[in-house]
Specification:
By secondary structure, the chain is α/β, with parallel strands linked by helices. The chain has helices spanning 20-33, 50-57, 83-89, 99-104, 109-121, 134-138, 142-153, 159-162, 183-200, 203-208, 222-226, 243-254; strands spanning 9-13, 40-44, 62-66, 93-96, 125-130, 166-169, 211-214, 233-236. Helix 1 (20-33) runs parallel beside helix 12 (243-254). The structure holds 2-phosphoglycolic acid (PGA).
Length: 255
């Protein structure tokens, strides 16, 4: 009913794939395929690909995102990248709190909160990932887990700022496994996220936040997932590395 109020966003999450020259080639293939999209199209790419990616998509309707950002402006944080560095390159989106960062790199809700605030302060859009593990779904505590992530990840973030955040619901058991959540499962949790935002903020905020689904979304299952009332787009890993598959998902969002 309120889907028209929100921006539909199809974002690729390339993860640790593609060198700069490969990034240029892939984006060059994607540009003509998505030029008539009536949704937002984003490619989130490895740090070293960002500059060439921004240059390659100039004049097109594709926006570029990073896959993480540190919360400090600068300092002794070897191996980290600041929001100022990303902003200067021309990055518009930053993925925060992806489950791979949470699982393998010690990301916590507290650091997700700090990173999200830093991305907002720099004038970029965070795509904040939440989602339950397989054993959490089996124990029927999905809502408890996702609800807790939302409360901690967005602690201290104002209603106005919340409207500038994109949430990606990514059930961890569906990422890179080929096991997609059914459209009904995706809708159930995306609707729960929206209800939670309405309680934490207001219906106005809840209605305006883009909530993506992510986890083995591809060219064959995208249309049905995206037809759901509370699924406002997708965060796409594997299928975003193949231009024909990614552009087919963008077309599914247009339909
Ligand atoms: P996948 O990854 O599409 O390869 O499952 C999604 C993601 O991790 O964002």
């Amino acid at each position: 009913m309120n889907k028209a109020l929100r921006k539909v966003i199809i974002a690729g999450n390339w993860k640790m794939n593609k060198t700069p020259s490969e990034a240029k080639a892939l984006l060059s293939e994607i540009i003509p395929l998505v030029k008539d999209a009536d949704c937002e199209v984003v490619a989130c790419v490895p740090y070293v690909d960002l500059a060439v990616a921004v240059e390659t998509v100039k004049g097109s309707n594709i926006k570029i995102g990073a896959e993480n950002a540190h919360w400090a402006e600068s300092g002794a944080f070897t191996g980290e990248i600041s929001t100022g560095m990303l902003k200067e390159i021309g990055v518009d989106y930053v993925v925060i709190g992806h489950s791979e960062r949470r699982q393998y790199f010690g990301e916590t809700d507290a650091t997700v909160n700090l990173r999200t605030k830093a991305v907002l302060a720099a004038g970029m859009t965070p795509i904040v990932c939440v989602g339950e593990l397989k054993e959490e779904r089996e124990a029927k505590i999905t809502e408890e887990i996702v609800g807790k992530q939302l409360k901690l990840d967005f602690a201290g973030i104002s209603a106005d700022n919340m409207k500038n955040i994109v949430i990606a619901y990514e059930p961890v058991w569906a990422i890179g496994t080929g096991l997609t959540a059914t459209p009904a499962q995706a809708e159930e949790v995306c609707a729960f996220i929206r209800e939670t935002l309405a309680k934490m903020y207001s219906k106005d905020v809840a209605d305006s936040v883009t909530i993506q689904y992510g986890g083995s979304m591809n060219d064959t299952n995208a249309a049905e997932l995206l037809s759901k009332e509370d699924v406002d787009g997708g965060l796409i890993g594997g299928a975003s590395l193949v231009s024909s598959k990614f552009s087919a998902i963008v077309s599914a969002a247009n339909a």
